[in-house]
Amino acid sequence: MGLTIDTSILVDFFTKKHAERYEKSRELLKVAEGKSVYCPKLISAEILGVLVRYNIKLANLGYGFVLKNFNLIGEDDIFDAVLEICKNTGSRAVDGYFIATAKLTNSALITNDRTMANNAKKAGIEAYYLIEEFDEAIEKLKKL
Question: Is the pLDDT of residue 144 over 90?
């Protein structure tokens, strides 16, 4: 079993915009170091698209972090599962990619997006809304 991390965790970590969210994301990434972390390949575009709004150096840093630390699941391997997730939960398409990744890799999903966490739970995925379920998420991660 592994872990799927949503883009929102990385955005909170790299932007440091909200102190509490930054600290929780930082601690999560620290505990996740060396563990199997899965993400849809789409995270590469998402992290670049969000962080470039701050500056290009930050965007490149985030992108490099993703490539170095995460196992990326390609479109061909995930798309049918994304369609099924969206149909069964009504989730946003981009959220469907992360939920499907967690499903296909038998991973727990950790996100700072309440809607994504709720839709993942609807899909039968173990999911944590880090902002409110920090202790539970960290405990789960330490057991991996």
Answer: no
